[in-house]
Amino acid sequence: MANRWKNDLTRADATPYEAFLNRRQIMAGLGGAIGLGLSGVGSAAAASETAELEPNTWEEVTTYCNFYEFGTGKGDPAAYAGQMTTSPWSVEIDGLVDRPGSYSMEQILEAMTLEERIYRFRCVEAWSMVIPWQGFELADLLDLAGVQSEAKYVAFETLYRPSEMPGTAYRVLDWPYREGLRLDEARHPLTIMATGIFDKPLPNQNGAPLRLVVPWKYGFKSIKSVVRITLTDQEPHASWNVANPREYGFYSNVNPNVSHPRWSQASERRIGGGLFARRQPTTMFNGYADEVASLYEGMDLAKFF
Ligand code: MTE
What we know:
With 305 residues, the protein is α+β, with helices and mostly antiparallel strands. It has 9 helices and 12 strands.
């Protein structure tokens, strides 16, 4: 896969994961920190960029999670999401589309081309990770259904199955979990539907079998275990935005200059950095400004936060 986006190096651009792991173990043994080994990309700038994109560990990505349908503790999803049935799975695609209907996971996977994207991931709670996703561009799935010209937004819905989701017994949110994007955000090439991490199928706690990933927005926009995608001309209901519009905007683009009412967003704690690691500065659009800033030209980002 060609490296079309400077911030989404693919595994093909980097050392194969097993080799990377081995090297990391070796380097750890030597007491050194390394970035991803690069094959064919030689510049110092590229090297420092990829060093910053060194993925978190499998352990970190799969045990430090937010998936409130299974509880609000960071370890709850890993402990309880195993009971969610993810096969068979289908996604209802409806609203302003030419080919509405129930698309099975098999149908979707057959039609889509999977690729790897290594993205920074920044939670609104001011922690961050780097995650190697596998998935496909949401735009390709939207094209499969055929988006009609009146559509302006895309709405998403997570599975709501109380018998398998102990966290839904608590009205923390108005279940099912819902999210939304403007159509141009949804169609942006950085926006993917993930089916895997670390070359393995997505674990349930990370949103199996299919979850949204929008790397320039706070993590809560990246809705998990999606069962419905609706094309609409109205701004969609977004769970956190509706629960507390003062704290969670519909856009929720990562922005170090706009504080959350209860904490600053200027810096973040990189998971895995160790207890005493220094916080790192948060970057505009989570480092994807070159690619996405034009989507918001002319908008007051303090108002449309
Ligand atoms: N999707 C659903 N259905 N339920 C959730 O509670 N949490 C969101 C998002 N998607 C959430 C969700 C939040 S707050 C974050 S930070 C990310 O998932 C966390 O993704 P991860 O656990 O895979 O890192």
